[in-house]
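Before the break, one more example. Copy the sequence into your notebook; we will annotate it together after we see the structure.
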Amino acid sequence: MAGTARHDREMATNAKRQLAACSDPVERLRLQCLARGSSGIKGLGRLFRIMDDDNNRTLDMKEFLKGLNDYGVLMEKDEAIGLFQQFDRDGSGQIDFDEFLITLRPPMSSARKEVIMEAFRKLDRTGDGVITIEDLQGVYNAKHHPKYQNGEWTEEQVFRKFLDSFDSPYDKDGKVTKDEFVNYYSGVSASIENDVYFILMMKTAWRL
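Here is what the structure looks like once it is written out:
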């Protein structure tokens, strides 16, 4: 399932500690996201997606600065402008936010990326690139969940809660895209140093 709470806490503590000594703007933003746990980068991505009113998947300087501010990123305006310019490689005054998120994700080995995609493909039973409740019904057994067993939740509520852990806190739509899944696990990955352990955790969690 999701990364364990202990890994999340350790990662958040490490990120906060590293932040104090870090001066690179991209790394500082990455650490501020990771200080919120596994979902930090994914949450920022979702916030930018909501702000992208015209759905052109790009952000201008104003949207970018507002997004950082709304997400509570602590950064001087000059530093944020410098960061925007670093991502605006062609000088068009716009940044592609898919590219931005890919750069922001903590680096992962190809073995980690492959096992994340293997898990995604297993969960996405319909093969449409989005995980929904319908996909989960054949893969994830809700009846083992303690809240289902004590009658507190229906099967549908168990599935929904499960998807919410990958979904963004700002826009829970009960669907998880490939990007959100990878963004989520890039956060979990950052909390686990050892490749073998990360891959084992994924294979055990998803029975791969």
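Residues 122 and 139 are 8 Å apart (CA to CA). Strands lie at 58-60, 94-96, 130-131, 176-177. Try to locate both features in your own notes.
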